[in-house]
Amino acid sequence: MTTLVRTTAAATTAEVPVGAPAGRGRVEPVPRWAVRVAHAIPLCVLPSGLWRVALVLGLAGYDADYRWAVWERPYVIGLSVVSEGLALLALGLVRPWGEVVPGWVPELRGRRIPIPAVVVPAALGAALIMTLCAYGVLNQIFGFVEPLNDNGDGFPTSGPAAWALWTTYAPLLAWGPLLAILTVAYHRRRRTDDAPTAVRPEAG
After folding, report:
1. DSSP 107
2. Nearest Cα to 118, choosing from 82, 91, 81?
3. Fewer CB within 10 Å: C terminus or N terminus of the chain?
4. Burial level of 86, CB count in 10 A (0-12/13-18/19+)?
């Protein structure tokens, strides 16, 4: 009888994944589609960053004689690095470090991250990105701002250089919607994980 009880207890323990909160239900697995979306977001941002780097290096096929101000090259490179870094944060919505503070963080290591601390910034970021992208598209259609030209005063608007610009910036339109979808999936999964479950007493 004792052996049977121990075997049953061991089997019950084995069914609960490592890292599951005490007194709570089974940890909800991350869907494969969400993992793919999280990896797709940095890939959507990468082409525009590479185009800006090529522009700084004079490899974009446009405006090779432009005289850069002292601050312009660091700004363009920094914009590319920061944009890609922000895009990589989307991986936190499908990785453990987006739910539990990593071990290398002093004082807070191992603590579960509150859901609003992740969902609110991600949702605001998605809304801001979609707003900026919508403005960029509408500006091209309705001309809110005077269009840039090919005389060295702005980005190209015609020719191969313009096609390269539009092609590399077009994937940015998917960044906001993908992040919004991923944020909703993260919120639902975390709510399921953190929902308390009724603990039934073991039969005698």
Report:
1. T
2. 91
3. C
4. middle
Q: What is the DSSP letter of 177?
A: H
Whether the model pTM is above 0.85:
no
- Tens digit of pLDDT for each residue in 30-44? 999 999 999 999 999
User: DSSP string covering 118-174, please?
Assistant: HHHHHHHHHHHHHHHHHHHHHHHHH-SSPPP-SSSSSS--SHHHHHHHHHHHGGGGG
CA atoms of 162 and 36, how far apart (whole Å): 30
Q: How far apart are CA 47 and CA 172, in angstroms?
A: 9
**Three-state DSSP state, 187:** helix
Averaged pLDDT of the chain:
79
In 10 A of CB 81, how many CB atoms?
13
Per-residue model confidence as pLDDT tens digits over 139-182:
777 766 665 544 544 566 666 777 888 899 999 999 999 999 99
Query: Residue holding tokens 């793919």?
Result: 36
148 backbone dihedrals φ, ψ, rounded to 5°: -75, 160
Q: Check if the beta carbon of residue 171 is closer than 8 Å to that of residue 48.
A: yes
pLDDT of residue 129: 96
Determine the residue type at 111.
Answer: R
Q: What is the pLDDT of residue 108?
A: 83
